Structure formats: structure tokens, C-alpha cells
Amino acid sequence: MPNAASWGRWCAAALLSGSAIVALAANDVPTPVGVWQIVDDTGDPKALITVTEKAGEYVGSLTKSLGRHDALERRCTECTDWRKDMKLQGLQIIRGLRRDAQRDEYIGGKILDPDSGHEYDCKMKVVDDGRKLEVRGYFGISWLGRTQTWIREP
């Protein structure tokens, strides 16, 4: 029979091992960090968005146009905030998202439609083993909006 000291060391080692396994499993969950191809309602690719994370906040910026060659040279003339008249190239269109681990999605953010200048509430969910990103823009409550599925770039 093990003594109390060795039993305590064994329990501590088991707890630490279990914590390490849980931490590894949590790190294997796909995140929205990366480059995503925006596909419009007709299925045509429109642009690439780069999503980054800093201090738990996820943001996304336009990085490449897949349609018109001059699209990213345009300016956000309809924007009414700090992005007014900024070039679409590098423009931050997603901001403020935070991970909700209970629902396994990213919530509490905003998404900008640079064509209209309107900003909508936003949430997203990584699906299909990290290959797709469901991005929902909505007005006030989630069912007053629409979802686009973006495709992760290799």
C-alpha cells in the first residue's frame, strides 16, 4: 500500500496529465485565424479576408480581390466611421469577435458591408473540420440576417 506522500504525488501527476490532455484537445479545435475566400450568393469567389487574433479578439481585413482588378483600390466612401474614404485594400471589415467556448462559436462582433457603409452585428462558426467558416451578419437579433459560408485558403 502506498504511503500518503507517494499517493499525493501520484494524484498530482494524474491531475496534471489530465489537464495537459484537455489543453491539447482545446488547442486542436480549428479557429477562424487564417485566409478565407468570400463566395457570393451565386457561388462566385469575390475576395480574400485575413482573420487574425490578438488578446482574444478576432478581426478580419480585406486582402485580395478575386473579381474586379481595381476593387481593392476603391475607397469606402459610404463608411461613416474611422474607415471613411479608406482604401478597401487592408480595410478591417470584421472586428470585436470573441470565442464562446460553450457554443463553440465566435460572437459579439461587427461586420462592415463596404458597398453600403452599413455595419452589422456578426458571429461566426468554424465548420467542416476547419475548412469552412459560417459568417452571419444580422441586425439586432440573429434571425434578422443572413449567413455566408467562406472557404479556407490552403
UniProtKB/TrEMBL annotation:
Lineage top rank: taxon: Bacteria
Keywords noted in UniProt: Signal
UniProt key word Cytoplasm: no
Record-annotated DUF2147 domain positions: 34-152
Cleavable signal peptide: 1-25
Protein name stated in the entry: Signal peptide protein
